[in-house]
From TrEMBL:
Xref: PROSITE patterns: HTH_ICLR
SUPFAM superfamilies for this protein: Winged helix' DNA-binding domain (SSF46785)
SMART domains linked to this entry: HTH_ICLR
Listed GO MF terms: DNA binding; DNA-binding transcription factor activity
Protein name: Helix-turn-helix domain-containing protein
An example Gene Ontology biological process: negative regulation of DNA-templated transcription
Lineage: Bacteria, Pseudomonadati, Pseudomonadota, Alphaproteobacteria, Sphingomonadales
Length: 97
């Protein structure tokens, strides 16, 4: 087994902690907020391997935060707009701007 992680078979240094994964997923969202892009460009932009970026992007797609459009790459998903509406409603109820 060597240096491999016993549960996943992957090397320990390639595994993300929960906080690291959240931070990197937010980096992916911030990058895509600038403009849609393909995986290779996205991975370079956020400083991740293509494999790690692919996993994070697909997790965000599954939650509706990103949309995968084949050759056009990733773009923001509909869930982002839903969260914006929820934010506006919460602020209106609390009297915030």
């Amino acid at each position: 087994m060597g240096d491999e992680h016993p549960d996943t078979g992957s090397e320990p240094e390639t595994r993300l902690t929960g906080a690291q994964a959240v931070g990197r997923a937010l980096d992916v969202l911030d990058a895509i907020a600038e403009r849609p892009m393909l995986l290779a460009e996205l991975a370079t932009r956020v400083g991740l391997s293509s494999t790690t970026c692919y996993r994070l992007a697909n997790a965000l797609v599954a939650r509706g935060l990103l949309s995968a459009a084949g050759r056009r790459g990733y773009s923001l998903g509909n869930r982002i707009a839903e969260l914006g509406v929820a934010l506006r409603e919460q602020r209106e109820k609390s009297g915030q701007d």
